Amino acid sequence: MKWMYIAILLLVVLCMPISVVRAHEVYVLDQDEIEHAFSVPTTNFIETIEAHFKQFLLSGLIGVVIVIAVLAISRMTLIEKFLDPFLHRIKHFAPLITQCTLGLALIASGYYNAAFGTELPLQDLFGASAGIVRFCFILFGGCILFGIYPRLAASAAFVMFLSFLFQYKTYMLNYGTYFGEALALMLFGSGYVLFKVKIPTFEKNIEHHLHKYKFFMLRVFFGFSLIYASVYAKYSHGGLALSTIEKYHLTNYFPFDPSFIVLGAFIIEVLVGIFFIIGFEVRFTSLVFLSFLTLSILFFGEAIWPHIILIGTSLAMFTHGYDRYTLGAKLSQRKDFEPVL
Fold first, then answer.
1. Is the four-CA dihedral 30, 36, 39, 45 of positive or negative sign?
2. CA within 20 to 30 Å of 218's CA: 41, 50, 82, 281, which one?
3. What percent of the chain has pLDDT over 70?
4. Is the CB of residue 322 less than 8 Å from the CB of residue 281?
5. At 121, is the secondary structure helix, strand, or coil?
6. Any long-range contacts for 126-135 (C-beta under 8 Å, 24+ apart)?
7. pTM of the predicted model, to two decimals?
8. Is 110 in contact with 134 (CB distance < 8 Å)?
9. Percent of the chain's residues with pLDDT above 90
10. Please, is 14 exposed, middle or buried when counting C-beta atoms within 10 Å of its C-beta (0-12, 13-18, 19+)?
């Protein structure tokens, strides 16, 4: 069984895309555009809502209808009976997916010589020591990916993230998913282990008392990082989003005022984050997020490597689905079945 996992992991590594383009607002804009965007005042969404109240109200009603429809479909007994056996089987892959995600994301950071995203090049940050940091990214990521003392490697990655947090302060909250993945792997163990440090008493305690909190922790950090990234790029520094809309002529595809487009994207991203945190319509939210992420990558020609952490965590959320700490499970009120979407 272990060798089968190793073969799968090797296949994933060999298929990892190689590209050198950018991602998110700070990736698709050049430095001059970013500096100009930072000089733009904070977005006033109240004025935007007042100016486009009918459009805002209609969009909100459509959103509510979609959420209610998904909730109703997810709780249909016939659909649950048909899909739940499959959904329960794929739950077992969620820990492996999160482990592969963190490992691949760290390896990609080292390979592309940038910390978590292209706006943090290691050469600019560490100078002559950049090669050592780059090696650490690849080493820790490789150990996590192949299950070689993964808990120890995750602990090292966690400490490394903290060092960036001390230097870049709140900006690193954009990459809070790394923090959550490393912390969860460090505390609760991995989905696959080839070699490990044996601490029987500690591991037994984790397995019986705390392991149930693993995906709750992942959801909270993932959702919070999405919310913070949206607040950062679309509210606090709304000029980033407005510059992106202007540069790529997005009003040709969405015939609305640019500020209204930014507001819509902001609300959707915040709701996606909240839905992940509270565990509501988890699978539907994962599919929506992955769809928008894929379209964004294709349209803007963005790099895949900075998105590995987002894609993999979304897939983990989809495969894991619901547990006792999700709102969706509590609303279901049925022990044998869980909401489909």
1. negative
2. 82
3. 81
4. no
5. strand
6. 134/110, 135/110
7. 0.84
8. yes
9. 20
10. exposed
